[in-house]
Amino acid sequence: MPIQIEHEEHLQKILQKVESGTPCTMRDLAREFGLSPSRLQHLFKERTGARLGQWLAELKLQRAARLLAESNMSVKEVASAVGYGHSSSFVRAFERVFHQAPGRFQRKKLNKRVFS
Fold it and tell me: What is the pLDDT of residue 19?
C-alpha cells in the first residue's frame, strides 16, 4: 500500500513542522503536502484521533503561554509570534482556554519569577 505509506510520511512531517513552533494554518499544511484541507483533516483524525484545527489552536495557545511566562514580549507581539493576525482574536482564544486575559496571566508569571 504505497499510498498509505506516503500519507504516513506526510503526517510525520506535518507533526514535526507544527511541533517545531513554525506558525502555520491547515490550508498551508495541506498545500505543502499536496492534499486538500478536508483530506488532511481526515488523515490526521484517522491517525491521531484528534481534530487538526483544534490541535493546531491548542499548540498555538500553549506556545503563547510559554512566551508570556518566559519573555518580556507584549501580548500583541506574542499574538503575532504564534500566528494570530489580530490580537483581539488571540485574547478571546486565550481567555477561553486559560480563563484569564493574557496580560494578567503574564503578570502572575512575572510575579512568581520575581518573588520565588
Answer: 77
How far apart are alpha carbons 50 and 17 in whole angstroms?
A: 17
Homologous superfamily, domain 56-115: Homeodomain-like (1.10.10.60)
Phi/psi for 30 (5° steps) reads -60, -45
* Burial class (CB within 10 angstroms; exposed 0-12, middle 13-18, buried 19+) of 87: middle
- pTM for this predicted structure: 0.79
| Stretches in the chain below the pLDDT threshold 50 | 1-3
Helix (H) or strand (E) holding 66: helix 52-70
User: How confident is the model at residue 4, as a pLDDT?
Assistant: 59
Give the cell for residue 44. Answer: 490526521
CA distance 3 to 19: 24
Rg, Å, the chain Cα set? 17
In this structure, are residues 98 and 60 in contact, taking their beta carbons and an 8 Å threshold?
A: no
